[in-house]
Amino acid sequence: MDLKGVLFDFGDTLAYVDRERNNQYRKEVMLVLRKNGYEGSSEKLDEIFDETYWLSSRGDFQSVEEFWESFLRRLGVKGTLSADKLEKVRKTYQNSLFKLYDGVFDVLSHLKRLYKLALVSNCAIGTFDMISHMGLVSFFESIVLSYEIRIRKPDRRVHLEALRHLSLEPCECIFVADEISDLEGAREVGLKTLLVKQGTSTMREAKDVNFKPDYECDRIQEIKNLL
């Protein structure tokens, strides 16, 4: 394979959600809501949280204020509660909700010497600041985030946008991800595919349960031995 570029997914590929911190984050959001008259269940809050984050990942909101305003409307919260109070909670937690897998910096440092690298992620507004805080930005010549371009993987246009920034053809690149559905979209574009089987959602939304990636490994640090 005449490889010139490597495209990476973010969540469950390079980093994973810290469940304990995420639970604390949602509890603090609930506490703010309770103080302002919200009487719904934590299950309802989680449902609306996840729905609003998904909407954000496809670019529905142009600011974090719009995100929180939509969240409050969907919860049915009325009154004087402002988005600012909830945004203050988010900022407290945003840089600690994700943790990098072991070996990520080593892998990216190694591959950057050999290939052009891109980050391609379905994510909610504010994620770039978190990625920057984690020290990842300098590794990538292209960072394509769904909320910025208002397109989610597996839409082929996401990968094509990254390739445009890299000035490479699909046949010259490989996409690394933890979900089959993302790899299906990459293959449609003509990218090689590498499945990292360390996440919990490998088969989520997969169209072909028999899909076979070109390469696969159990941990992100194993990629150095494959590419």
Largest sheet properties: 6 strands, parallel
Q: Low-confidence parts, pLDDT < 50 over ≥5 residues?
A: none
Spatial ordering of strands, largest sheet: 5-4-1-6-7-8
Strand-pairing-aware structural class: alpha/beta
The topology string of helices and strands comes to EEHHHHEHEHEHHEHEE
Number of strands: 8
* Straight-line N-to-C gap: 9 Å
CATH top level of the largest domain is: Alpha Beta
CATH topology call of the largest domain: Rossmann fold
The backbone outline, from C-alpha atoms, is elongated
Polypeptide structure, described:
- By secondary structure, the chain is α/β, with parallel strands linked by helices.
- It folds into 2 domains: 141 residues, 3-Layer(aba) Sandwich (Rossmann fold); 75 residues.
- Helix content is 43%, strand content 15%.
- The chain is built from 9 helices and 8 strands.
- A 6-stranded parallel beta sheet has the order 5-4-1-6-7-8, with helices on both faces.
- Helix 6 links the parallel strand 4 and strand 5.
- Helix 2 runs antiparallel to helix 3 and helix 3 packs across helix 4.
- The protein is elongated, with a radius of gyration of 19 Å.
- The mean pLDDT is 92.
Layout: helices, strands, pairs:
Layout: E1 5-8, E2 15-17, H1 19-35, H2 42-57, H3 64-75, H4 83-93, E3 98-100, H5 104-112, E4 116-121, H6 127-133, E5 142-145, H7 146-149, H8 156-166, E6 173-177, H9 180-189, E7 192-196, E8 215-217
Parallel strand pairs: 1-4, 1-6, 4-5, 6-7, 7-8
Antiparallel strand pairs: 2-3
